[in-house]
Amino acid sequence: MRIAAIGLACALGVGVASADASAAPDLGSDAQRAAGKELYTRNCAQCHGDKGDGNGVAAPHLMPRPRDFTSGKFKIRTTPSGKLPTDEDLKHIIKVGMPYTSMPAWPEFSDEQLMSLVSYVKSFSPDFARAENQVEGMTIPKPPAMTAESVARGKASYAELGCARCHGELGRTDGGTAPTLKDDFDHPILPADLSRPWTFRGGARREDIFRAMTTGLNGTPMPAFGEALTEEQRWDITDYIFALGGSSESPDYATLLTAKKITGDIDLAAADTLFDQAPAAFFPIVGQIMQPGRAFHPASNGLTARAVYNDADLAIELRWNDMRGNASGKNAPDLAVPPEEDAAEPMAAKPAGAAADDGGWGDAEEKPAAGKAADADPWGDAEAKPGDADEKDPWAEDDGATGAGDGASEFSDAVALQFPVVLPTSIRKPYFLFGDKDHPVHLWFADLARKTPSLWLGHGSDKMENLGARDLAVTSRFEKGEWRVVFKRRLRSTGALSFEEHGFAPIAFSVWDGASRERGNKRGLTTWWSIYFEPAEKPSPAGSMAASALGVLVLEAAFVAWARRRKRTEAA
Amino acid sequence: MNLFDLRVILGILAVMALLRLVRASLLVWILAWWIGMYVFVSRGFATPVPASAQNIYLGIVTLALFAYVTSSGERVRSFVDPLVTFAGDGRYTLALVPVLLALPALAAYREYVNAKVPVEPPFFARTVHPSPPTEITVHDVKVDMVGGDNPLRHLEQSDPEKFRQHVENGKAVYYEHCFFCHADALGGDGMYAHGLNPAPANFIDQGVLPNFQETFFFWRIAKGGPGMPDEGAPGDSAMPEWERFLSNEEMWEVVLFLYDHTGYRPRAREVHAEGH
Question: What is the DSSP letter of A411?
């Protein structure tokens, strides 16, 4: 009877459970729960399980795991840390989904359907039925103006609170504890990459970041700062995090890499400034899930490329985030991945505390006198110089002591650029997974534990041939959670693709994270995108503008002359 | 639904109604039609129409208007005469000069805009659903693509319980292997879809499941991107060759699941007249 009355109240649209914390919990009507069950069974049970315990058929393959509704632990809430979410919180997250996870957005559900679903989801945990668990959600205040000062204050708080221990100094997940983090369900969990706000689970608006700072993420190591920090302090830190992500909420993925023509030499020793004029292109990285040795959850989700060229050479810079720069061990595109690691449970193979490497950087070209190369390379200098000691996180050191010894990993980080051997003239490109029988590709491959790159000829991932360094050179550096690798090659090459001014070529990328045991086919990759060699001087439109204006003028003159003559003869 | 921008269309109709009221001349009507169609194709759609398609439409409009005007001598005269009077009569010289200057400026501006268009990689048209071969071999089993059928389909009538079990198996296969790209709700917008080009198939789209027989999807699943005929951009497709991971039965089951979950029916087989 009471349930029916509450159901009626709900149907009348007063169903915000948290509206009155003293009232009995609103668990929805039988009809609502029945309708919710129907929606749930069709749309949600695959992952969250028929019993709501997060053990659906898809669950073992997912990272992060689907929510276990029986636990009563929900990440995205407006309620204080450790508390249950409000109905509105649950509705919101169903509606917008969790970006970059397997939880999609469900914008097609009506408010009524969402309410039914929420009623059913709440029935999985007895916690929702207890009146004392009812708390009101906070109203997120209107964000104050973001200023250089607020960002600076936020930066200081970020350092003081130790956010970098997990998220890393620049938010690239390279904090000392990051690889060891687990959630309350003992599943490995990654800290949010604060340099990639579009991946934030609860949204990337400043209001969303503020909410996460205030209420934390239940069931995860992310604490709540609602009580420890004032509202102003939380906005400051929000602004700093927003700035870390480039103040953008969307990734703006590229399909084209534009190589800028420069006049000077292309010198890898000057890699720091070489690309200042070149536009950056950010490409999405997805898992290699097409061939055996699959990586359903690659460590990287995007890579930024820039390119410059002159009359002789081409250089391409690649940057991507990595928790650890694994510059020991080995890697290669043809390393075999045993079947038991194919589609293995996500991150199961990740060794805990693959400790910080010293930030490996390789020198530019392979030279007989390695010492000479090192002092000629400003990248090396920059790396060896000050701050090395200052920047060391005390936590990272702890980790080094308890973790995997000296940071050695079996597999090193690696990266590859892929080009067709012959420029395709039709839709038929080489297969983007290392080519195919009739359409080979070249890989510019860099095992970041080695100083020399290698050129590989691919006729498919099971037919890879190492051709040696040839005319390739590479330099690399790992700093604050980011790999930066620069490849250099002559613009024209015999037996390989030659690049021409104003020309296009297909280009693809692969990234291997050694700590995640990525090697061979197990890797993050991109599909084919394009590189364009922008001419030094873009043709001015003045010529064609003048020509078409003149053309129109001549036609006009002819028409007017003809009309005038006709008027004259009419008059005569 | 949101195909058109209604404000633009209503604006065009309002101008046309006004011209009707003031009994505009043929010349004005022709100009109004051309400009109206230009505004319609460039602004009237919720999602912008590609420039190449706009040019094709406007070319057709221009030809149609030309055909209309030249269909009788009277129309030609009522179109040309005002122009001749405007250009030839000394009284209008003051108004003529700005027009004579504005048109070349417009032409130059068009060239300028064209030059500013960002570069795009060479484009090769691809066939989205290329024709399958007449027969394929999967795990040593020959499958007739034209006359064949899903070997589990008959259970729908003869043994519904067993059929349900196959659909459930198909669901498990889908949520283990497929939904990373083809999505939870089968909309083709899974968590890796943003990184793929061409985009994964959208099974909710009416143009996909109902338009093909089940053998078509069995072929696409078993042979994947590498098995695509040349016109289907085989080097780009991220569709795996599922015969490397799945048994024939699992692949037929996942096809059953796709139809079951979306509620679509496979396209009916064509009955050939040569049968008696």
Answer: B
Residues of A in Cβ contact (< 8 Å) with B117: none
**Nearest neighbour of B103 by CB, restricted to A504, A552, A565:** A552
* Residue A495 and residue A284 in contact, taking contact as beta carbons nearer than 8 Å: no
User: Are A530 and B184 a contacting pair at CB < 8 A?
Assistant: no
Q: How far is A309 from chain B (nearest CA, A)?
A: 18
Ranges of H-type helices in A98-205: 111-122, 148-161, 164-167
Q: Which residue has the tokens 């799945």?
A: B246
Give the integer Cα–Cα distance in Å for A137 and A86.
6
Half-sphere exposure of B196 (CA within 13 A, CB side): 26
Question: How far from B165 is each of A52, A61, B169, CA to CA, in Å?
Answer: 22, 22, 6
Contact A290 B119 (CB under 8 A): no
Collect all residues of chain B within an 8 Å Cβ-Cβ radius of residue A439.
235
- Residue B245 CA to residue B234 CA, distance in Å, equals 19
How far apart are alpha carbons A191 and A179 in whole angstroms?
Answer: 9
Looking at residue A365, the DSSP 8-state letter turns out to be: S
| CB–CB contact B240 A431 (8 Å) | no
- What are A176's two structure tokens? 């000392």
Distance CA A522, CA A461 (A): 11
How far does the CA of residue B146 sit from the closest CA of chain A (Å)? 26
For each of chain B's 276 residues, which pLDDT tens digit applies?
467 888 999 999 999 999 999 988 899 999 999 999 999 998 888 877 777 788 899 999 999 999 999 999 999 999 998 898 888 888 888 999 999 999 999 999 988 988 888 888 887 888 888 889 999 999 999 999 988 999 999 999 999 999 999 999 999 999 999 999 999 989 999 999 999 999 999 999 998 999 999 999 999 999 999 999 988 888 899 999 999 999 999 999 999 999 999 999 999 876 655 444
A7 touches chain B (CB under 8 A): no
Phi, psi of B37 (to 5 degrees): -70, -35
Minimal Cβ distance to B115: which of A43, A101, A541: A541
| Cα distances (Å, whole numbers) of residue B145 to A180, A312, A543, A549, B167 | 52, 53, 57, 59, 22
Residue A547: closest CA among B149, B153, B104: B104
Suggest the residue from A201, A286, A296, A500 to mutate for an interface test with chain B (most B CBs closer than 10 A).
A286
